[in-house]
Amino acid sequence: MYFKDIIGQEEIKQQLIDSARKGLVPHAQLVYDQGGSGAFPLALAYARYLNCRKRSDTDACGHCPSCLKYDELAHPDLHFVFPIVKNERKKKEVCDDYLPEWRSLLKKQIYFDLDHWLSYLDAGNTQATIYSKESDEIIRKLSLRIYESDYRILLVWLPEKLQSACANKLLKIIEEPPVNTVILLVSEEPDMILGTIQSRTQRLNIRAIRTEDMVGALVANEGLEIEAARQVAHLAEGNYLKAMNVISVSEENNFFLEQFKNMMRNSWARNVKEMKATADRIAGMGRERQKKFLAYCQHLIRENFAYRFVAPELNYMNKQEADFAFKFAPFVNERNVFGLMDELSKAERHILQNVNAKMVFFDLSLRITALIRQ
To answer: CA-CA distance, 36 to 32, in Å (whole number)?
Structure first.
């Protein structure tokens, strides 16, 4: 991963390059984006740049021994921490047990999210976590001498997935890490991280990718025509993962749209039997996909409300979603839009709290029944 591989974010790249060249490198940084804007690729490119022996004013050299090891994601002074699915039967309990799969994913995809990772692991409905045992591994690794670099790098992807016991054990080492150790925490939900960890880091917020940069990347990387790239970039709202989904018209997106249609139609018709069947079907998706589905539902409610203003620049729906909105949008209005959003947000919170999913989605359908007719 090099800075040149990252779409846009020129100001942030220059900020990171300047900190490395001046030797003003914070020992603990919290790099945040809302997904798909490049937080993880930036952190990894920064780690490479810090330890490159022949770095230029713009990027790592790509030829020195350090860069060659970074190409294989196997540098002895680079340590990864990421959510895993514990498998005691196969003796997979810490991140190092999943390093082959992790390296394989990173070599294939620059931009990815938790769903990509879980799919790569074939994790099914299991939630990924950074378990308490990982803190012992981290402390052990950081106590070793630096092998051959200026900096030892600990790159933690999604620290919001740290178990409480693990997070608490890491407080001291984040506050006072060993000399020349840089801890990079890459988060999509920083407010879910232990407050005492947040306060010990320097925060770096990564903005959504600018439209012009997104269009350029889509033309260069995906072979789209300019106008098609502009349309995709508009729908993606600065998120490269969304752009890829728009291009592929993903099966998951279509599935989510169908479930949303079913939920709304069943609630309007007060069809309790079908409400229960839809709730059971969604409950079988696994909690990570359920959270993603509820976020998608909130997106569609917002877009259907905006659709009524007949302002295309305000809408971020693909053709299938817009076709449905033509008939559905009148049912989302000033009297019920806030209530619908509140109920979907509450359901998402309940899923996060591990409430029984069948109950959550059936109750949600019943509550929508009262709101949709307002």
So the answer is: 11
Q: Which residue has the tokens 């989605």?
A: 361
Comparing CA positions, the residue from 202, 190, 125 lying closest to residue 160 is: 190
**DSSP tag of 208:** P
Q: Is the pLDDT of residue 276 over 90?
A: yes
Structure tokens at 204: 């770096």
CA distances from 194 to 31, 114, 138 (A): 15, 20, 17
Return the bridge partners of 231, or none. none
Kindly report the pTM of this predicted structure. 0.72
Domain, as residue range, for 347: 251-372
Directed axis angle between helix 211-222 and helix 226-236, to 10°? 130
250 pLDDT exceeds 60? no
Which residue, 141, 174, 205, sits at the end of a domain? 205
Rounded to whole angstroms, the Cα distance separating 134 from 140 reads 10
DSSP string of 220-279, one letter each residue: HHH---HHHHHHHHHHHTT-HHHHHHHHHT-HHHHHHHHHHHHHHHHHHHT-HHHHHHHH
Give per-residue pLDDT as tens, 254-263: 889 999 999 9
Looking at the structure, tell me whether residues 109 and 197 fall in a common domain: yes
Are 49 and 23 contacting, i.e. CB atoms less than 8 angstroms apart? no
Q: Is there a contact between 69 and 51 (Cβ–Cβ < 8 Å)? A: no
**Residue 199 shares a structural domain with residue 54:** yes
Tell me which residue has tokens 């005492």: 196
Cα separation, 272 vs 165, whole angstroms? 43
Taking Cα atoms as reference points, which of 351, 359, 297 lies closest to residue 127? 351
